[in-house]
Amino acid sequence: MNAYISVSKLRFITGLQYRAAALAGMATQLFFGLIFIMVYVAFYSHSSTTPPISLEDLVSYIWLQQIFLGFIALWFRDHDIFQLITSGNIAYELCRPCDIYKFWYAKLLATRVSSVVLRCLPIILIVFVLPEPYRLGMPPSVITLLLFVVTLLLGLLVIVSISMVIYISVFWTMSPTGSILMIAVAGEFLAGMIIPVPLMPLWLQKIVYVLPFRWTVDFPFRVYSGDIPSAEALWGIFVQLLWLGVLIGLGRWLLRRALQQVVVQGG
Amino acid sequence: MGTPLISLGGIRKSFKVAKRSAGFRQAAKALFVREHTIVEALQDISFSIGEGEIVGYIGPNGAGKSTTIKVMSGILVPDSGSCSIMGYTPWKDREAYVQHIGVVFGQRSQLWWDVPVIDSFELLKDIYRIPEMIYKDNLAMLVETLALNEIIHTPVRQLSLGQRMRCEIAASLLHDPKILFLDEPTIGLDAVSKVAVRQFIKTINKEKGVTVILTTHDMSDIEALSNRILMIGKGTLLYDGSLSALRNRFGTHRTITIDYREHLDPVDIPDTSRLSWSAERAVYSFDNEHISIASVISRLSEQLELLDVAIDTKPVDELILQLYKEHLI
Q1: What is the DSSP letter of A48?
Q2: Which partner from A27, A60, B53, B60 sits 20 to 30 angstroms from B101, CA to CA?
């Protein structure tokens, strides 16, 4: 088996062990989903202007966000990699006949996938049978559903590439807390995790649209509900691919520089 | 011996270390101005090692042992100097080169903490692209010789240090490496595990012709294993030669331990120094060139009723200490 597939497999299996965390996660995600929707329902019922996104689309946006939290949350960290760098265990990674970038990428990807796989099914079952207006609607067509799957997965790859850049920065900062916190807080907001992008003021939307973050959250979820039409979605997939190329290029370049001057911590 | 398997020439490596004195004022100052000192971890290290050797690499803490190992295993890039191992330059041809080496860092773990050992092994099999047949053979051999049968299906976090170390060593040998680097493989192990590990290292060296380079602070490791030692101190190579040559250099010292029927007054023998005295046991040290063993014993027996006599050459630890002293490290 290919080494990169093999490491994802092992990571995936490891991830599946954490059942209690998954249960707690499911409860939290359902809870937050409901609270957010309640808040928006209250806002929408007292709004005098037509909101830029319909309540139905917003509800599916929020549920998808909760279901696929593991795919899209920037703060989702892989402690292993931090520890590898800060404790010096990276020494072992470096004496393997592997490309470290690909190796870590595979690990991160598998961690996220295992987290979502473990939690998503029960949540999906529940949110599809909730009463209106809390129920998650179906996408308008099969094509939309397909586009959603493609954009969501591409978004996952984009977010892993962004995390890779953060992880690699630990070589210089030696503390994951700083770089994670800075990029994660800003990044999540700019991705539309806190407030959906259509509800942001126009000037902020302009900023959001030139950054990579929204392609991981805002974009796939609005494709699902049809808020972004199919033609536009295809164009978006192209942009996602573009960002993916840029971020992977950046990550590889940084890692190469880091390894040239690597200091193995702790003797 | 032909061309050496490993040859290092003029390797230098320095680290920048942030420094500040203790105290709040200094800490506050360090917020604005960082002081760095350059630590020369390796200064002009050159040596070569032939195929099939077991080489002990020794030196006090912070001498640069681990740094050398890391340069040789392609992890660190040195500031200058050349290194050729099996025709590769480790830090340039890293991915191709590491296929041929195995590394064990005694203070770190390469096994996955939360899953059974065998899962880590399977992953290594894929990482090194080990053919199924070879993997099976090697695994069977390692399980047998390192007695891993009962622990291989246990998650790593539940293993004792000795068990884990045996698994670590097995993990670094699954892919039939030509060279094995061991950085303090016996650290923290009890006597039984130490002996098992040493025995195993000897076996793979003999049977598979694996070249072994090990660093250790435990001189009995060196005594049991290596025919050659390299000593490093403050980043420079201080000694390169066999253990017996080192012995001969300082080796005319002997200690004699005697047991006798109760005798209350200490006895002194000329040309020896008395290290300890009790009513029934005493230890003397002397230089074999100045006084022969026979005359020491005969003089002792003139005054004491000897029950038992044991003569020791100077322990290797002391030889090494003397060597350190000679070089002021």
Answers
A1: S
A2: B60
Say if the Cβ atoms of A89 and B109 lie within 8 Å.
yes
Q: Specify the 3-state DSSP secondary structure of A192.
A: coil
Strand boundaries in chain B, DSSP class E: 6-19, 35-49, 54-58, 80-85, 101-105, 179-183, 211-215, 228-233, 236-241, 253-260, 272-277, 281-287, 306-313
Closest-CA residue of B relative to A13 is B115
In chain B, the residue whose alpha carbon lies closest to the alpha carbon of A5 is: B126
pTM attached to this predicted model: 0.81
Residues 6 or more apart in contact with residue A223 via CB below 8 angstroms: A144, A147, A148, A151, A233, A236
Per-residue pLDDT of chain B (329 residues; tens, 9 = 90+): 467 889 998 899 888 777 766 777 777 776 777 777 888 888 889 999 999 899 999 888 878 888 899 889 888 888 889 999 999 998 888 888 999 999 998 888 888 888 889 999 999 999 999 999 999 999 998 998 888 888 999 998 898 888 888 899 899 999 989 999 998 888 878 888 888 888 889 989 998 899 999 998 888 888 888 888 898 888 888 888 888 787 777 667 788 889 988 888 888 888 888 888 888 888 888 887 788 888 888 888 888 888 888 888 766 777 777 777 777 66
Q: Say whether residue B77 is in contact with chain A using an 8 A CB cutoff.
A: yes
- Cβ distance B108 to A87 less than 8 Å, yes or no, reads yes
Of A7, A95, A259, which is closest to B73 when you measure between CB atoms?
A95
Query: How distant is the Cα of A7 from the closest Cα of chain B, in angstroms?
Result: 6
HEC letters along B310-321: EEEECCHHHHHH
Between the alpha carbon of residue A221 and those of residues A52, A218, B271, the distances in Å are 15, 6, 92
B232 touches chain A (CB under 8 A): no
B62 touches A: beta carbon within 8 Å: yes
The residue written with tokens 């209690």 in the block is A20
Q: Which of A4, A13, A92 to mutate to test the interface with B (most CBs of B within 10 A)?
A: A92
Peptide bond into A133 cis (omega under 30): yes
What is d(CA A129, CA B313) in angstroms, rounded to the nearest whole number?
84
ipTM: 0.77
User: How far is CA B229 from its chain centroid?
Assistant: 9
Question: Using CB atoms and an 8 Å cut-off, which of residues 29-58 of chain B contact chain A?
Answer: none
**Cβ separation of A1 and B126 shorter than 8 Å?**
yes
Q: Which of A12, A79, A95, A171 to mutate to test the interface with B (most CBs of B within 10 A)?
A: A95
